[in-house]
Known about the structure:
The complex is a heterodimer of chains A (about 110) and B (about 110). Chain A contains no helices and 11 strands. Chain A is mainly beta. The termini of chain B are far apart.
Amino acid sequence: xxxxxxxxxxxxxxxxxxxxxxxxxxxxxxxxxxxxxxxxxxxxxxxxxxxxxxxxxxxxxxxxxxxxxxxxxxxxxxxxxxxxxxxxxxxxxxxxxxxxxxxxxxxxxxxxxx
Amino acid sequence: xxxxxxxxxxxxxxxxxxxxxxxxxxxxxxxxxxxxxxxxxxxxxxxxxxxxxxxxxxxxxxxxxxxxxxxxxxxxxxxxxxxxxxxxxxxxxxxxxxxxxxxxxxxxxx
Lengths: 114, 110
């Protein structure tokens, strides 16, 4: 079974621009979560989607948004990029049938804001 | 105060040593406790998860939860160079929101 895939793997943007990151979960998984990982703050929860509905949201500004499509693929958007948004963005999927605590992570998208 | 505290390391040990990795937390609502391993340039992979207090063993790995002390541990027996990675603890109160520690970098020297 293919794992979680994320595109693109690397991205360089300038301040003020916006960016869209994509995540394809493991086949059959309907829950997709997004995280931001930085050296100082570690992994921080952004939001979680299940069957196209946002179920949980972390403490990030409204510039961070997401959505999930009917095929469970998810996108994350960051508008008006700031230098502090430079981070590794990780997507994780899980199958509710196996237990929500078994999250499978993708390799991440490394975003650099200059 | 952070909800979860984890020593960042790095922790260097010789091959074959027993490794102890720990996290402390402040929110007594946490019921689910997980350990992830993250190799460089990869996403985290789930090693173990436990519910409530107690021990859980899986091969060379043992997870321990002490809810009264708000302290969780991961022990690695007979450590191998391939265990060199960053280890992250993650906690959940039962919602779909997880709180992660910042990770401990482990180096097992051959």
